[in-house]
Amino acid sequence: MSHPTASGPAASPFGKAEILKRAKGFCAPFRISEGDHFRLDRLDPTDTLHLDKSDKKAAQAVLAEGVELLAELQDKLYAQDRWALLLIFQAMDAAGKDGTIKHVMSGVNPQGCQVSSFKAPSSVDLDHDYLWRANQCLPERGRIGIFNRSYYEETLVVRVHPELLARQTLPPELVGDDIWKQRFHDIRHYEDYLARNGVVVRKFFLHVSKQEQKRRFLERLENPEKNWKFSAGDIQERAHWEAYMDAYEQTIRHTATTTAPWYVVPADNKWFTRLVVAAAVIDTLDGLGLAYPRVGDRARAALAAAHQQLLAE
Length: 313
Ligand code: ATP
Ligand code: MG
Description:
This protein is α/β, with parallel strands linked by helices. It has helices spanning about 15-25, 55-80, 95-105, 125, 130-135, 155-160, 160-165, 180-195, 210-220, 230-240, 240-255, 270-285, 295-310, and strands at about 30, 85-90, 115, 145-150, 200-205, 260-265. The radius of gyration is 22 Å and the shape is globular.
């Protein structure tokens, strides 16, 4: 397989066709559209394809060009007002969700973008089915919606901590050994339903290594300006690392589909994570064949009349 290059003679300025081609090359290796034999331990969080640290600057330039193209695609998405794009981000703490969202979406018009963060559910949330709160945050047509964590926590943190399932006060006869399989089934069908309504779903697992998480936690503890990012609970969750990895593997295995694929993005190098996520968003939007709405004959005549009227003032 030929890998995309971040540098090289034709590096900059990049034409649109070249950026789209590179975007495909950067995201395709990490897309999981069929999860049957998915194994998380076969994937390397330090992977940067053929790029190394010396390519970091060139990769950032590619990202900047990509962000510009993304803004253009989003403008068409908004103008066309047919499709919505839902980007779901899941990760262990300190994997870089917030920074990735910030960088990848840095060029887009805030009017066309909505970010929702899902924390532990409130008592009102717990009085409803688990998709209820997420369903209210879905992006409108023409918009990009970002879920910073999502209903996927229902087969991740809730699976790792059975006491959280108990808090949901479901009728006991509905909580059997099959509950996770049932949740996977429901989520797959929910995402099919969204796809059939014009909501394009793409899911990102930022795959950081346990060792890199430790390094980032230490940095947060040792650097006063980063102290605010650390919470004591993060260390407790780290103690359940293996259980989380199992839960992620099962979740991806059972919910990766062609309509709503997962991208398992290596997350030990932030510059590479951002490149892959931007590439996947660009590739997805490009696949929608977006175009500005064409003005019909009657509307064009009205525009010409308005034009004349203004010139005559
Ligand atoms: P950051 O740490 O960067 O601020 P975060 O996404 O980790 O971002 P936190 O407030 O630290 O935000 O954590 C939110 C917590 O809420 C996570 O531990 C997550 O597992 C938990 N959570 C989210 N959804 C659910 C859910 N449905 N049930 C139980 N816990 C949930
Ligand atoms: Mg956190």
